[in-house]
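Hi support team,

I'm filing this because I wasn't sure whether my run with adenosine-5'-diphosphate finished correctly. The job status page said complete, but I'd like someone to confirm that the output block is well-formed before I use it downstream. Pasting the exact inputs I used:
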Amino acid sequence: MTIYQNLIAGEWVGSNATKNINPSDTNEVVGLYADGSADDTRNAIAAAKAAFPAWSRSGIWERHVILKKTGDEIMARKDELGALLAREEGKTLPEATGEVIRASQIFEFFAGEALRLAGEVIPSVRPNIGVEITREALGVIGIITPWNFPIAIPAWKIAPALCYGNTIVFKPAELVPACSWAIVDILNRAGLPKGVLNLVMGKGSVVGQAMLESPDVHGITFTGSTGTGRRVAAASIEHNRKFQLEMGGKNPMVVLDDADLNVAVEAAANSGFFSTGQRCTASSRLIVTEGIHDKFVAALTDKLKTLVVDNALKAGTHIGPVVDERQLKTDTDYIEIGKSEGAKLAFGGEVISRDTPGFYLQPTLFTEATNQMRISREEIFGPVVSVIRAKDYDEALAIANDTPFGLSAGIATTSLKHATHFKRNSEAGMVMVNLPTAGVDFHVPFGGRKGSSYGPREQGKYAAEFYTTVKTAYTLA
Ligand code: ADP
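And here is everything the job wrote out:
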């Protein structure tokens, strides 16, 4: 088998490799991917540092063309890349293809943004003096990504970093190197100068750690667990480095008595269980008022019975496997914790087998949960959802906000008053009315509050906040 290598200073390198395994069929090796070392990482950082002066002053048309070509190629290859994504991560083929399309759109968006770079010219308070306010590239950006969106998250970090003139050392998650390799290959062929984008696949404790320790990395953008996020923060403070963290959630969806039942059930099923519940914006707490509680639970349970859990590549599969054995163990451990805490297992809870050996788990619904239980407070990151009763809207809102996280929050209601109040009073970065808590477009700001996020928003024009630094320049006329 060929080894998909790391890209360092414009050269494909690396002979140590690890297997990328398909979670829908653990007999299948998706490919062999390079396992980078701390030295590889240091070389990549040096290459990015050397490439920075020229790239940060490159023309906006050059950046536009490279980003546009990349978006176009990703779109042209959406079916092939969608299948690759489904094979390495386990989300269903339609979900995976949708994610590939989103990655393409992100590159198209930032191809446009490259042509719209602008500053401000304002008068000084002193006569005959002008002030220019411009945005400049930050420098070498370290990009550390998780396994749950193998192409969209790399795209929404790489595209703005390049658009604003930064150079990159990119470390994808160990479990899903294939899509990352594919987009780096596309960008490289699209004409990026050597060293502008360096790919170092490998372990977080080796490659990621070497990135954290380098004084030559000027910004780190990280999406992953809270524990690793805190390490990124501590190391970055040490180096006086800018950093941005996305670390998950425990997202509530409030369902009020006046909700349209179908809308509420569809939104809850989608955001609780699609992508196997492995989205940081997944709804994992359904907070349901008394008058609709039993009807909602019955309808959601009926819906869950219709969802097919199977091989991600099979037509008709609604929910693919859990990403790996370790995550499956986390999920089943939390199911046991939920039972022992006194929540009622209303549906699912079993690991199941299919024609191909994989990590298949039934969608799992707990009822009679309280917001103090561990299953309601800790992020599980699987298809495990709890229903919490609330007596009215005010109590539901209080429960929704009573969490260490603050990424996304939803409400199902036909009341304008409650929808409006919830949008204003939710302590989450993103709020959805009558929609799943997951599913934020590619051109709008993405990010949360409290324990979910740190630093400026990602995506859309707000991405400039992280990937640039502002300069204020005076001229005496
Ligand atoms: P998960 O538990 O979901 O895998 P992690 O936070 O461990 O979440 O992983 C997210 C990303 O962080 C991955 O790319 C991983 O390799 C990387 N990572 C893990 N440990 C470290 C570390 N010590 N320093 C830098 N990056 C790390």
